[in-house]
Write a structure and sequence with these properties.
Layout: H1 2-16, H2 25-28, E1 30-38, E2 44-46, E3 53-58, E4 63-71, E5 77-91, E6 94-100, E7 105-113, E8 117-122, E9 127-132
Antiparallel strand pairs: 1-2, 1-3, 1-9, 3-4, 4-5, 5-6, 6-7, 7-8, 8-9
InterPro entries: Lipocalin-like
Domain Lipocalin-like: 28-119
Pfam families: Lipocalin_4
Length: 139
């Protein structure tokens, strides 16, 4: 009986700890500011100041776009209107973003999204850590 109880608890823990990448989609939209990049060799580059932020928008069909914006002091944004289109696919327990521009195609895998954090990895095994962008409050 004790073995069955222990086995049941272990199985329940494994099931509840399994990764469901669909939950990442709900926090993906919005304004993101890069915080750090960890390269494949383990070296890190921190960003203490960013003059641009990434804006991500997703449609109901799981297509979306990412656009670079430059925040202004009055709370508005400047943009070049260039955007990177992507499609979201869930594959092998991962949330993948497939980008396509006139110049290139590539894939990023979302490792984590929360209300305030975004973490993705690219084909070069570089991990990008973003924080939710908060406008500068001068008051």
């Amino acid at each position: 009986m004790k073995r069955i109880l222990i086995f049941s608890m272990l199985a329940l823990c494994c099931i509840s700890c399994s990764n469901n990448p669909e939950i990442y989609i709900e926090h993906l939209e919005g304004y993101w500011e890069i915080e750090e990049v960890i390269l494949a060799d383990g070296s890190k580059k921190s960003y203490t100041y960013n003059d641009t932020v990434d804006f991500i928008e997703i449609s109901d069909s799981l297509d979306g776009f990412r656009m670079k914006l430059k925040p202004a002091l009055d709370g508005t944004f400047e943009t070049s209107k260039d955007s990177e289109q992507f499609t979201i696919k869930i594959e092998n327990d991962s949330l993948n973003l497939y980008y396509k521009t006139p110049f290139d195609t590539w894939k990023e895998t979302v490792l984590l999204t929360t209300e305030n954090q975004l973490k993705v990895i690219n084909k070069n095994k570089a991990v990008f850590l973003y924080k939710r962008f908060k406008p500068l409050n001068l008051e």
